[in-house]
């Protein structure tokens, strides 16, 4: 077993990257973590991973905990943080990468995509197929959810339409997707397209449509987000916004470690 203590003492570095994610129960972040560790392990860095369950106050506590381990760099999921957490991170003086979103203010490094534009594009695809009564199913109502809903709203507003919005503020699941569809039917039976903030919800909607004998996409079009295996493995596949989760984690780690080692970061 290699003894890294002399190296750590000499360089005043722990060779550890802290990673903070909102949920261990979501495949999205498993893919991101795989991308991160493909790079950190190749450079003999360890990852220290914490989960905050979408709770801003817990996020603050977990960041403080990670910083107490003298981590060399920090990877965060998302760009919305409390003022206190931002103060903690800035005071640490270490490089920080924010993932899964892009644009606006940034702490340091950002690697992601435009959630609003992605949702705008998918909503336009619905409109071009003739759909007009479009619902947006969110879950946690977190900043990425809200960006996607905003993109949906903007696309519909261009056609003088409004979106039907549901966001139960709970972690998404297939069962939740079915439940939301049943609830929607009670108030908006006219809905002919549903854009879900992730594929778990979309598969739940699809299963309930199949149970009721509704033709998809003829009667109701369904789309998800992230292009997860759960949406592609079924006999009837769902449309989805494909996101490069592994590549996002990989690129963020490459930039972070390049910063730490004084090398040129990848473009």
TrEMBL record:
<protein>
    <submittedName>
        <fullName>Transcriptional regulator</fullName>
    </submittedName>
</protein>
<dbReference type="GO" id="GO:0003700">
    <property type="term" value="F:DNA-binding transcription factor activity"/>
</dbReference>
<dbReference type="GO" id="GO:0000976">
    <property type="term" value="F:transcription cis-regulatory region binding"/>
</dbReference>
<dbReference type="Pfam" id="PF00532">
    <property type="entry name" value="Peripla_BP_1"/>
</dbReference>
<feature type="domain" description="Periplasmic binding protein/LacI sugar binding">
    <location>
        <begin position="15"/>
        <end position="258"/>
    </location>
</feature>
<dbReference type="InterPro" id="IPR001761">
    <property type="entry name" value="Peripla_BP/Lac1_sug-bd_dom"/>
</dbReference>
<dbReference type="InterPro" id="IPR028082">
    <property type="entry name" value="Peripla_BP_I"/>
</dbReference>
């Amino acid at each position: 077993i290699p003894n890294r203590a002399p190296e750590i003492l000499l360089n005043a570095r722990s060779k550890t990257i802290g990673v903070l994610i909102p949920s261990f129960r979501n495949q999205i972040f498993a893919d991101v973590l795989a991308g991160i560790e493909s790079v950190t392990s190749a450079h003999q860095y360890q990852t220290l991973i914490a989960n905050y369950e979408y709770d801003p106050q817990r996020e603050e506590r977990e960041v403080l905990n990670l910083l107490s381990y003298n981590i060399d760099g920090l990877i965060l999921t998302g760009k919305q943080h409390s003022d206190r957490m931002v103060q903690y991170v800035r005071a640490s003086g270490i490089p920080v990468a924010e993932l899964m979103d892009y644009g606006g203010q940034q702490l340091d490094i950002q690697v992601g995509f435009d959630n609003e534009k992605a949702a705008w594009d998918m909503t336009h695809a619905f409109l071009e197929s003739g759909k007009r009564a479009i619902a947006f199913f969110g879950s946690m109502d977190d900043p990425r959810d809200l960006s996607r809903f905003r993109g949906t709203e903007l696309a519909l507003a261009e056609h003088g339409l409004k979106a039907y919005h549901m966001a139960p503020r709970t972690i998404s699941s297939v069962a939740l997707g079915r439940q939301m569809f049943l609830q929607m039917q009670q108030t908006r039976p006219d809905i002919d397209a549903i854009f879900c903030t992730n594929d778990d919800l979309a598969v739940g909607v699809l299963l309930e449509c199949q149970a009721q004998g509704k033709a998809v996409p003829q009667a109701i079009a369904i789309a998800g987000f992230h292009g997860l295996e759960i949406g592609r493995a079924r006999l009837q596949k769902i449309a989805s916004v494909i996101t490069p989760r592994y590549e996002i984690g990989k690129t963020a780690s490459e930039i972070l470690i390049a910063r730490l080692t004084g090398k040129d970061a990848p473009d």
